[in-house]
Amino acid sequence: MSVCPTEYWIWLQTALGAGAQTADILSYFETPEKLYLAGSDEWRLSGLFTEKKINALKSSTPSQTAAVFKECSSKGYTIITPDNELYPDRFKNLSDIPLVLYGLGDCTVLKDVLSIGIVGTRNASSYGIETAQKLSYRLAQAGATIVSGGALGIDSEAHAGAMLAKGRTLAFLGCGLSYDYLKENAALRRAITRYGAVVSEYQPFTSPSRSTFPIRNRLISGVALGVVVIEAGIRSGSLITANCALEQGKDVFAVPGDIVRSSFDGTNHLIKNGAKPVFSASDILSEYDYVYGDLYDSEKAVLPLNSVKYVDYRKPKTKKEPKVEKTFINPVQTAQPVESTPPEGVSDDAKTVFGALKNGEMHIDDIVRVTGMKMNIVLSSLTELELSGAVEQSAGKKYKLL
How many other CB atoms sit within 10 Å of the CB of residue 71? Predict the structure, then answer.
């Protein structure tokens, strides 16, 4: 039975683990297949492996990866290895190059040139949350791709800001794609797959641990031109990402914070030690004018952050039916109307779109027609509702209430 090249990559990653130093190994053996065929005697002679690693390499074979392929096939995950066209060029020079990536969504986002990492604390202040969403909105609006970790707090707001601007975003997880982690962010992850991709270095059912997230952080910085730290304490994991960026020769930016709040000690420390302070999207993107100036809209980058409307998509749905609400009749649908109300905190436009969808699943063109709203406003409203977990997209550009 023949073995495909991808199986050799999965075998090597399984044996050595995510984040292993593999650059010298690949330089010596060229490919995982040649490594496997060389055998244990050659592994020892190379001087690149401890006896423990040799035993790990011997403990499995490439043909034993069927369970991984089955899960990826059933869930629609894309398997990306260094010899795949979707693999980021910026990863190829890392000493701890990720051997396998698992992605869901539009994985071409991994190749986006103008990618900016946005990181910060999970327990963010209202200032940090609002800044993350608004700054990411402006960056995405100007043409940048927002990269973060899909966690609560700053990460979530960074992804949300990009999507509200109809931009591109990429999330690297610290666990497998099939692991049921952080349920409150499930709607956000679903939305991200429409505007980019959710990606993991870990096999689908891998659970998170204290070590998986720091290993993951090097990917956020590795795929980006630079990393922006928005709110982080002096011991925050976000500083690990900043350190990874420095080690990789990437730029580090930081948003100035309250000097009497410990949650900003890390970001203010970065500025004190040379990180560029950020007050606008232009402060970041202007650093790349000399190479990538034609890839972003400088006029949008300089627009003030205070003119961006913050969307609090995390407010819970209310169970009370409003006394007066405009509803719509969709002639295409015959299903009984859904008895529910829009999430609190969404815009009036989003409430109007929600009202239209109460009559059943609708194509986006029908939503535009029955609401009388412009397409860009409908799309923005649908994004708000998706982030709130109130709406999901089905096949053929159709939407329905959840």
Answer: 17
